[in-house]
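Troubleshooting log. The previous structure file for this entry was overwritten by mistake, so regenerating from the original sequence record. Sequence copied from the archived sheet and checked twice against the printout by T.R.
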Amino acid sequence: MKIGGLIKFTLIDYPGRVAAVVFTQGCNFRCRYCHNPELVYPHLLQGSMPEQEVMDFLHRRQGTLEGVVITGGEPTLHEDLLRFMADIKALGYLIKLDTNGTRPAVLEEAVKQHLVDYIAMDLKAPLEKYSLITGVEFDPKTLQRSMDIVRTCGLEYEFRTTYDKEVLTDADIRTISDSVQGQHYRVQECLPVAKEKATLKVMHTEL
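Regenerated output below.
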């Protein structure tokens, strides 16, 4: 696994759980508001954190932490993700997976192998605006397949959208919300705080 960083303690990234956060490197999107560009853009990538260092930490925190959030970047790009998740599950942790939904086969396999307990899937925009937001072309059927997997997997889940007011409108947010019947959906408002980076403020109202 190419790991870009580790947050050793969080009360907000895994709802209702005391958790650690593992950041993977690399992403197949180029979202203009990305708040982790150092995990996405090749020219900004630093050396990877040794996986064994992460596992040693999780061994030491057994009984203290309840869960591990795997985020990025885009975790499902990593061919050894499922093996990594299995290693974490073997330590007794719950796993929350953050994903952009572009690799439904990986998502489906994680569910089938009981390697994930909570899924958070980003919905970047209405389908007709996806390329504008993400900077890439892709088949919208791929996204729909992932949405179906998330909704029917029987696990805890959420859909979420980062609200960049320069490119998304209130109508866009309503369209996205309607696409998931307004269930398990929340919006993160993009608040630029510097030219080179933005920060996310969670809007706690569920739509």
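DSSP finds six helices and eight strands in the chain. Archived copy saved in two places this time.
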